[in-house]
């Protein structure tokens, strides 16, 4: 593709993305489907430029005020993520001069640190304020900048090994032999972290379902449910089934695993993944809402229920940077009502002794701890379990470092770790709390309970 045409295509994609009528990843996928002639480098430039501008939108829009020509083109010039010589040859003289003048203020530039804070954190004001307040209340005010910097980077590509098909080490060896560079993930026993973003779909391991793309944090949520052979389990908000597949494999393809979701479309995306995985214990069921009759019939019958609730997704900004511009305080408030309603309905499915997990990929306290505390207050028949102790029992390295609240005193030893079952709802390490800047995963939250009666 000619440099000028590629820059035009970047500008056109940005114009459409910044209308925020559709998620950026959906828009990009559609663009690539409709333009099959695009090569891998052109696709990478288009995708990375779009994501870079979404990540650094406040800064780039500020700098773009000084340029000339259509707004989206100015953003594409400032945020271009392809070969620098390629960009140079797409610019006219005045554009080239303007870009050179802006360069010291771009991310990584010599004068970037002199910019006002909003142009460095690139978050909407409401979100920056909430994160600052929340971190300060937890005594972690210093974590604000490391967090926003990590949210503005692209995420690593993690795989989950389908342990029904082979051990992690053996699959890692197979992938290395196919030319991939990777290492075991630090916490999940099922995970592999790839270097770069190699294409996976043609690999034999992918086609036979031995690997699935899944963030390490997501793997840990499924692990925490500790679903076992022969269990009756529900993945209440299964979506395209990332966690369903991990749960089905943990159950060794035995028992019964219901994959519920209100979106039949998302459940459809689970079907080819299920076919590859070799699982036959999964039952995808599209429901009308969380009080659907098909769910009521299962009341009091299940051993494990995972509620991977619909949420703001603000823990996934590394992958979905447009979410910070698409979310709002009002939308988050509405989500919290939905989250409470879903958790309440899902809890009814458990039998006494059964385990319930409420999880999100949000960073916000109101979608996480606040929902868990409200559930505690309304459900005396559920006892909170300690995520740190559970993960330790599952042999996850450094389990306590993945959970909050952190130990009050440094140097807590394993012997001092709290028991898995605790009625002290504010105990150390009660919640799984994953952060991109600390754990290299997306931001995740999970609270765990056991039904008593
Ligand atoms: C965070 S996503 C799930 C992601 C999925 N568990 C995975 O690992 O890939 C939340 C899902 O909740 C679904 N959802 C929304 N409202 C629901 C409801 N009332 N009952 C069940 N699922 C619901 C959405 O369609 C969406 O697929």
TrEMBL record:
<keyword id="KW-0949">S-adenosyl-L-methionine</keyword>
<dbReference type="InterPro" id="IPR029063">
    <property type="entry name" value="SAM-dependent_MTases_sf"/>
</dbReference>
<feature type="binding site">
    <location>
        <position position="308"/>
    </location>
    <ligand>
        <name>S-adenosyl-L-methionine</name>
    </ligand>
</feature>
<dbReference type="InterPro" id="IPR049560">
    <property type="entry name" value="MeTrfase_RsmB-F_NOP2_cat"/>
</dbReference>
<dbReference type="GO" id="GO:0003723">
    <property type="term" value="F:RNA binding"/>
</dbReference>
<keyword id="KW-0489">Methyltransferase</keyword>
<dbReference type="GO" id="GO:0001510">
    <property type="term" value="P:RNA methylation"/>
</dbReference>
<dbReference type="Pfam" id="PF01189">
    <property type="entry name" value="Methyltr_RsmB-F"/>
</dbReference>
<feature type="domain" description="SAM-dependent MTase RsmB/NOP-type">
    <location>
        <begin position="147"/>
        <end position="452"/>
    </location>
</feature>
<dbReference type="InterPro" id="IPR054728">
    <property type="entry name" value="RsmB-like_ferredoxin"/>
</dbReference>
<keyword id="KW-0808">Transferase</keyword>
<dbReference type="Pfam" id="PF22458">
    <property type="entry name" value="RsmF-B_ferredox"/>
</dbReference>
<keyword id="KW-0694">RNA-binding</keyword>
<dbReference type="InterPro" id="IPR001678">
    <property type="entry name" value="MeTrfase_RsmB-F_NOP2_dom"/>
</dbReference>
<dbReference type="InterPro" id="IPR023267">
    <property type="entry name" value="RCMT"/>
</dbReference>
<protein>
    <submittedName>
        <fullName>RsmB/NOP family class I SAM-dependent RNA methyltransferase</fullName>
    </submittedName>
</protein>
<feature type="binding site">
    <location>
        <position position="261"/>
    </location>
    <ligand>
        <name>S-adenosyl-L-methionine</name>
    </ligand>
</feature>
<feature type="active site" description="Nucleophile">
    <location>
        <position position="361"/>
    </location>
</feature>
<dbReference type="GO" id="GO:0008173">
    <property type="term" value="F:RNA methyltransferase activity"/>
</dbReference>
<comment type="similarity">
    <text>Belongs to the class I-like SAM-binding methyltransferase superfamily. RsmB/NOP family.</text>
</comment>
